Amino acid sequence: MSGKQVMKQLLRFLFQFKLYLLLALACAILSVALNVYAPLLIGDILDAITSKPLSTTFQLLCYLVVVYLLYSLFQWGMMYFSNKIAFSSSCVLRKQLYEKLSHLPISFYDTNPRGDLISRFVNDIDYISDGFLQGLSTMMSGVTTIVLAIVFMININWIMSIIVILSAPFTYIVASFITKRSQQYFRKNANALGSLNGFSEEMLSGMKTIKAYHYEESANHTFQEMNQTLYEAGVKSQFYGSLANPSTRFVTNFTYALTGAAGAFLALQSMITIGNISSFLMYANLFSKPFTEITGVMTQLQTAMASARRIFTILDMEEERDSGTTFFTPTKGSIEFSHVSFGYDKHKLLMKDINLCIPAGEKVAIVGKTGAGKTTLVNLLLRFYEINQGHIYVDGVDIEQMSKDDLRRSFGVVLQDTYLFEGTIRDNIAYGKPEASDEEIIAAAKKSGAHEFIRRFTQGYDTVLHTNSNHLSSGQKQLLSLTRVLLMNPKILILDEATSNMDTMSEQHVNQAMELLMEGKTSFVIAHRLSTILDADKILVMEHGDIIETGNHEELMKKQGAYYTLFNSQFTS
Ligand SMILES: Nc1ncnc2c1ncn2[C@@H]1O[C@H](COP(=O)(O)OP(=O)(O)OP(=O)(O)O)[C@@H](O)[C@H]1O
């Protein structure tokens, strides 16, 4: 995304806050007009002291007090509305980003580290809102001050005005030269911060593995390198950013001195009064101040621009395709793969021309060496990835025509890594059916065998669980996950290596629960332990993405092919 595109999108985004923008602008204009009017009054007061009665001076002083009071009021208004824009925009952006993230395809998460995404949510949006807050108010009052100061200056003395106005392009040239140089470092800084967040998040969640493999030193080294990159980008961006203000200040101070000298010369020629010189110098100061202030907030604006680019890049991404419109709930659960081809990389197919017919109610086991494509097959069924060619039918309906919500609701999924959400045990069980009554929840837990251990917690079903909850064993987590699916009662089940990391007792419990769950349903079981799938109606043997053998246990053993070898390798080792 080019800088112009980011700017355009930013303006389009800001347009929704047009009312607040207008109010902030109105307050800015009024407060600046009053601030610009004040020097004129001060000049008049100075002249009145020497040439007019005391009462006139007093009256002018009263005006000045009112002018400054109103100025403060409008200044407050401008800050209030700018704040409103800044906080509303960060709230809206976070909402849009969250919605977008939940609509992006799974493949997006394969390539984007979680920590980097969190950094976009937290840091980048904060930078945008800070940039708006400072930038907007400074820009609005700055531009208005410049315009009004010019008008008043010309009104006082056009010769001196020309000197002041001619200095403006120099200030601009100096500021934009520095800005251009620093922009690239601000972008690097935002990216480095995202990467560092991503790495930290991974390291903290994988601390056990890091320690087990003595990877601490190496991880520490990588972290230090990333931290150093962030430090260097930060220092460079701040170095260039902080040059802007003093450089422009130098130009404006020089002009100020020049104007003073010109004023003194004109006063000697009686072409200007002392009061007018005093007013003019105040205007010259007012005129140059916004340039310095604007370059001062450039650093924040640039950070905001770099962050906006990172946010808009995601907001512009193509969402998960959901062409399906048919309202459909499978009542039987038959599945058909017809000439399906798929590759994670569009140019490198993993699966070629897969054909498969699973009648409703069958128990299908998917076996094969690691990396054979077992998970991929179920990923396609759930439409986590789009197939390149062919069709997948559920109860005769092409899943392309079903909405993804409908499709995924018809599946009950139990994965190897059970995911628990923040909330009570009750909430976790009812996740797929929030309207379930307590009776239904308890009945499902009794059926799965989870009720026994839930009951033992002091707070029973109200026990609060956390995402990384260590209160529960892996068997208990699996039982909760199975209870969740039992409650949903879907027509089709996907059970992914659900018992592979459990002790024998827990495995028995979970197997019983699974048998119960599978009754009368079409089920896909991905199992490494072939002993658990001997009774499957159909076993699909996969290799390099292809289904190379199909049949039940007896048929495949008789064949003495890949399944036979796999089976014997497990039972003879
Ligand atoms: N998100 C992904 N992006 C790119 N390639 C992937 C992705 N997921 C899996 N693969 C590749 O696709 C192939 C099949 O992977 P898959 O996870 O389906 O195998 P699997 O049989 O389930 O393996 P395992 O038994 O180890 O879980 C592997 O070569 C794997 O490297």
UniProtKB/TrEMBL annotation:
| Membrane-spanning residues | 20-42, 54-74, 132-152, 158-178
Q: Which UniProt keywords apply?
A: ATP-binding, Cell membrane, Membrane, Nucleotide-binding, Transmembrane, Transmembrane helix, Transport
Q: Which PROSITE patterns match?
A: ABC_TM1F (PS50929), ABC_TRANSPORTER_2 (PS50893)
Q: Where is the ABC transporter domain?
A: 335-569
Single annotated GO MF = ABC-type oligopeptide transporter activity
- Look up keyword Transport and say if it applies: yes
Which Pfam families does the UniProt record give? ABC_membrane, ABC_tran
GO cellular-component term (any): plasma membrane
- Stated name of the protein: ABC transporter ATP-binding protein
